[in-house]
Amino acid sequence: MTRAVGTVVRGLRGPIINNGDNIEQIVVDTVLNAAKTEGFSIEDRDIVTITESIVARAQGNYATIDDIATDVKAKFGDETVGVIFPILSRNRFANCLRGIAKGSKRIVLMLSYPSDEVGNHLVDIDELDVKGVNPWTDVLTETQFREYFGYNKHTFTGVDYIDYYKSLVEAEGATCEVIFSNNPKTILDYTKSVLTCDIHSRFRTKRILTNNGAEKVYGLDNILSQSINGSGFNEEYGLLGSNKATEDSVKLFPNNCQPIVDGIQAKLKEVTGKTVEVMVYGDGAFKDPVGKIWELADPVVSPAYTQGLDGTPNEVKLKYLADNNFSHLRGEDLKQAISEFIQNKDEDLVGSMESQGTTPRRLTDLIGSLSDLTSGSGDKGTPMVYIQGYFDNYTK
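Structure (tokenized):
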């Protein structure tokens, strides 16, 4: 019988995960139960993905704003702290900012504009053109920004992040000055002690600051990179990838996930005899065309994955073959010709015309995005995703 379905993606429902739970066994049991209940068989090269949130919850990887404040105070003392390039997010940054403010006396908050790093807009970019403002050269005070653009609320959250962030700082007892610039060097006119809060551009920002006279330079990845008074921590990413947990705490990105994915793979192999690939995923890497938000606010899509998920796809474009190599064929003859081409394709198609238009991204970024869109971030209750047929092509 001709196969009628290719890739199948299932969101798996499991228990609510709490601190101390055996996440490896829970994932294995959830997969086995889903296969039995839904009537599918587990096969080699299937993929099970687990959201980073439940891994961190099982690890108990949490910290309070007091823990953040203690670390900030230890690093900066009583100096004015330049807090630059934070993303605009109640979930991602509000509690981090409260902790930073609680550990400081004075903060100069420098926001990028017209949007933050992941696309949350303070003002529409077209408004800059109308007002004759150049975001790459012009430094604005809060008063100047308001004179140009007034008071704007985020499209989806309804929050004026300028007022909101300033109020959070002042509520923790620190004074706050807000400026707007996209040049890291701007902050050095205000202070030589800088906490850079960008995610994917953080290494460049640190380098620019250090090379231009900054005396103390840290990133969010340096805050809570070690435990503070028994708190959670992330040695590699610190506060990056954290989320609001309670009104006074954050859940950190999970620690040391490689043994977890390897352990799940080994357990499934022992029970089923099949080699299932496993990965932990956070935010997907995609952009919302309406809200203009680039989803990836985590430092990476996947902090850990099994060996079979390393690399990039090696695919050909079917429509290119049909329109070019085999444009003279139709029906079964066309199908047969394309199938034979795929079966005999080179192991590395980089640069070939037949692969143009295929997705030049890492497998983990693609699969993580697929998983994030499947599980969502709300009340679906499917923090594990089971994917079958992802590596199959037109011939299988």
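The mean pLDDT is 92. Residues 6 and 389 are 6 Å apart (CA to CA).
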